[in-house]
From TrEMBL:
Pfam families xref list: Rhodanese
Protein name (database record): Rhodanese-related sulfurtransferase
Organism: Cupriavidus metallidurans (strain ATCC 43123 / DSM 2839 / NBRC 102507 / CH34) (Ralstonia metallidurans)
Gene3D superfamilies: Rhodanese-like domain
Domain of life: Bacteria
Rhodanese domain ranges (all copies): 47-137
Length: 137
């Protein structure tokens, strides 16, 4: 009991709890965004289920290189363009950004627009390129 009565020990315990929470936060936050797929699984969805690839990066980033058949729909404009991305709302949608950080917002917007199966590409275009998969410029 003396351990908890010492203020120095309480400060160390508080620091440990806060730092643990900060380390866990990205995992907790990404878990609420939706489903994620790696580059190989994304390729399978595209080839076997005709998934629609939606690139949410801005026009300049898109012009530097994008996945084949990707549709450009910048994140800021996505709610306005969501309805016309796929004819059938049951077709899988793969959301792509540069490194996977912005895709959660896009997933939420597409779910709200009525798409039932929305995935985010883990690691974004950076992971796609690192895997040596094709890029259109």
């Amino acid at each position: 009991m003396n351990f908890f009565a010492d203020y120095n020990n309480l400060a160390l315990i508080a620091i440990a709890v806060v730092s643990g929470g900060l380390l866990a936060w990205p995992t907790i936050k990404s878990g609420t965004g939706g489903k994620r797929v790696n580059a190989a699984a994304a390729t399978q969805l595209i080839n076997k289920r005709n998934a629609v690839v939606v690139d949410i990066r801005d026009a300049a980033e898109f012009a530097k290189g994008h996945m084949p058949q990707a549709k450009s729909a910048p994140l800021d404009d996505l709610p306005n363009r969501a309805g016309g991305l796929a004819k059938d709302k049951a077709i899988p949608i793969i959301v792509v950004c540069q490194n996977g950080q912005r895709s959660s917002k896009a997933q939420a917007a597409l779910k709200e627009a009525g798409y039932s199966e929305v995935y985010a590409l883990e690691g974004g275009m950076a992971a796609w390129q690192q895997a040596g998969l094709p890029v259109i410029k």
